[in-house]
Structures are given as C-alpha cells and as structure tokens.
Amino acid sequence: MKKDPIDFINNKVYDYRVLSRMTQQELADKVGVSKQTIFVMEKGNYVPSLLLAFRIATFFEVEISDIFTYESGGEDNEN
C-alpha cells in the first residue's frame, strides 16, 4: 500500500522565545496573534502563515530559515 508523503514544518519558536526570556503572551502580543497560536505552534500542531513566519523571524532579527525548516516526509511504500 502506498501512502501519501507527509511533509511538515519544524520550528524553533520555543527556543528563540526562551532565549529572549519572553512568555508566550509577550511574543504573541509582539507579532499580533493569540497566546494559543504561539502555544500550538511551539507544540508543532500549527503551521503559521508565511506572513506570521516573517513577523516572528523579523522580531527575533534572524532569517526565516533559522526558525522554520521544511521537512519532506518522502514516500513511504509498504508492500
């Protein structure tokens, strides 16, 4: 059975936020989203829009690829 590849986006939002000694609420306020959005993003359960990803990277003064990385699931073939 052939399954669809599972692609996902890894992020280091938690790492950057903690290094900056910020709460989830403080970061949320800075980038214009809810605390819940930051929470689910850090847990890996939410992929931000491109606009939000740029806001976060700009806030931390890093390249977007320093925080967000694309991971290809490849193809999983079961016979």
Automatic annotation (TrEMBL):
What keyword terms does UniProt attach to this protein? DNA-binding
- HTH cro/C1-type domain boundaries: 13-67
Spell out the PROSITE patterns in the cross-references: HTH_CROC1
Quote the InterPro entries the UniProt record gives.
Answer: Cro/C1-type_HTH, Lambda_DNA-bd_dom_sf
Give the highest taxon in the source lineage.
Bacteria
Does RNA-binding count among this protein's keywords?
no
Which positions make up the signal peptide?
A: none
Which Pfam families does the UniProt record give?
Answer: HTH_3 (PF01381)
Q: Which PANTHER family match?
A: DNA-BIDING PHAGE PROTEIN, TRACRIPTIONAL REGULATORY PROTEIN-RELATED-RELATED
Protein name (database record): Helix-turn-helix transcriptional regulator
Q: Which organism is it from?
A: Candidatus Vagococcus giribetii
